[in-house]
């Protein structure tokens, strides 16, 4: 999966703050390619202020004179719209779009297209899209800020990718020094000896106690450092019992 193959395209954005806010949420979600089609005011200090640390995306943003130019090289174009149209386009939700975008981005270029703040995409621009993304909103108040729409769709892409937290947890799991099975066996033997010494465990009377204790510690999947701590406690307990 390659997020570098995904570009966000914003058309004719009138408020530069929306461009900066979109750049900010893009960087939050790991997307770095921003295309701007005839923005009203860009570059602009409001865009930089709203980017809040995502200035690098603004500096690298490609300004285009047409949507066709912004879509050059793309094999999948997903357009966002809040209005239902009598067109043959397939409508998908943001979650479906995230999964599809990540799947396609592994082998080809993908574009996410966001229209004007007030009027969205024209019929001609819709005609350049393969599928349309509809973000459900309150029927009594359907005004969704364009940067918020970018946030929703790019979030779903990040989640389709597995999520940064999940990936970080996987990377962290790989680096954790878990106790080996042989060290765990030594710990269990040490634990049993100590429990017998302090007269807590009677093997003949409570044959299921040690298996139950094993289950507790096995579920916890102890780190080696934790085993060392527990064995230190057992050593101290044995000395106190002498």
Q: Strand-residue fraction? A: 5-15%
Q: How many β-strands, per DSSP?
A: 7
Helix content: 40-55%
CATH homologous superfamily of the largest domain - what is it? SPOUT methyltransferase, trefoil knot domain
Stretches where pLDDT is under 50 for at least 5 consecutive residues are: none
Q: Would you give the CATH topology of the largest domain? A: Alpha/beta knot
Classified by CATH, the class of the largest domain is Alpha Beta
Label the structural class. alpha/beta
Largest sheet: 7 strands, parallel
The CATH architecture classification of the largest domain is 3-Layer(aba) Sandwich
Rg calculated over all Cα atoms: 28 Å
* Shape, per Cα inertia axes: elongated
Q: How far apart are the first and last residues' alpha carbons, in Å?
A: 61 Å
| Arrangement of strands in the largest sheet | 3-2-1-6-4-7-5
The averaged pLDDT comes out at 89
Question: What is the string of SSEs from the N terminus onward?
Answer: EHEHHEHEEHEHEHHHHH
Number of domains: 2
Count of DSSP-assigned helices: 11
């Amino acid at each position: 999966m390659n997020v570098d193959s995904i570009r966000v395209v914003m058309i004719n954005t009138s408020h530069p703050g929306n461009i900066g806010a979109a750049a900010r949420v893009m960087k939050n979600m790991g997307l770095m390619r921003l295309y701007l089609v005839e923005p009203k005011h860009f570059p602009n200090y409001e865009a930089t202020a709203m980017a809040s640390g995502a200035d690098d995306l603004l500096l690298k943003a490609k300004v285009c004179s047409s949507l066709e130019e912004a879509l050059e090289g793309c094999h999948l174009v997903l357009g966002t719209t809040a209005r239902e149209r009598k067109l043959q386009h397939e409508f998908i939700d943001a979650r479906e779009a995230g999964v599809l975008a990540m799947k396609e981005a592994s082998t080809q270029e993908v574009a996410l297209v966001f229209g004007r703040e007030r009027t969205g995409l024209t019929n001609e621009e819709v005609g350049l899209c393969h599928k349309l993304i509809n973000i459900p909103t309150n029927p009594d108040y359907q005004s969704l800020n364009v940067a918020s729409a970018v946030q929703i769709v790019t979030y779903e892409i990040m989640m389709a990718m597995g999520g940064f937290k999940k990936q970080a947890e996987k990377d962290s799991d790989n680096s954790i020094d878990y106790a080996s099975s042989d060290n765990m066996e030594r710990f269990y033997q040490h634990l049993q000896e100590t429990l017998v010494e302090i007269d807590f465990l009677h093997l003949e009377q409570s044959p299921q106690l040690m298996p139950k204790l094993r289950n507790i510690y096995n579920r916890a999947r102890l780190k080696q450092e934790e085993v060392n701590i527990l064995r230190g406690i057992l050593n101290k307990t044995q000395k106190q019992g002498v």
